[in-house]
Specification:
By secondary structure, this protein is mainly α. Helices cover 85% and strands 0% of the residues.
Length: 166
């Protein structure tokens, strides 16, 4: 066989190529090439989609990191506020106890004041009764003196001197 004949041999079958089989083979190869190109386009689109998803994932990761930092700051702030509220609550509890003590003292003083007012009113009543009794006693003493004076004057002469009895 000559060199030209060897070039026309089908390596798979070892036979010569004919034009129809070569055309069919070219068409098959073009179809395979077209399918490979379609697969390449699909894979390219999928690769771009995966790149976009990866960028979105990176953006989401950065956003989550920022949110984590923000939450960490808020957590520290809340801890500080909680400590402040605890301190204020303690102060308010102390002040509330002081108010309760003051209220109890005020109630006690009010009771003492009411008792003193009652004692004062009783003493004023007793003083009025004693003054009235003293006035009555004085009036009775004056009346008794006037009665005694009238009784002494009853037997006396109306013109100053008593007439002499004969």
């Amino acid at each position: 066989m000559s060199q030209v004949d060897e070039q026309n041999l089908n390596p798979a079958t070892g036979r010569e190529w004919d034009v129809d089989s070569l055309l069919r083979r070219v068409v098959e190869l073009q179809e395979q090439l077209l399918q490979a190109q379609e697969k390449s386009v699909v894979l390219s689109a999928q690769a771009r989609e995966l790149d976009r998803v990866a960028r979105d994932a990176d953006d989401l990761k950065a956003e989550l990191t920022a949110q984590g930092l923000l939450l960490s700051d808020k957590s520290r702030e809340n801890k500080h506020l909680h400590q402040e509220l605890s301190r204020v609550t303690t102060v308010l509890d102390v002040k509330l106890n002081e108010v309760e003590e003051l209220r109890a003292g005020y109630t006690e003083i009010q009771a003492q004041l009411k008792m003193r007012e009652q004692e004062r009113d009783l003493l004023a009543l007793m003083l009025n009764e004693a003054e009235n009794a003293a006035k009555r006693a004085e009036a009775d003493a004056i009346a008794a003196m006037e009665q005694d004076a009238r009784n002494k004057n009853a037997g006396a002469w109306p013109f100053g001197k008593n007439p002499k009895k004969t």
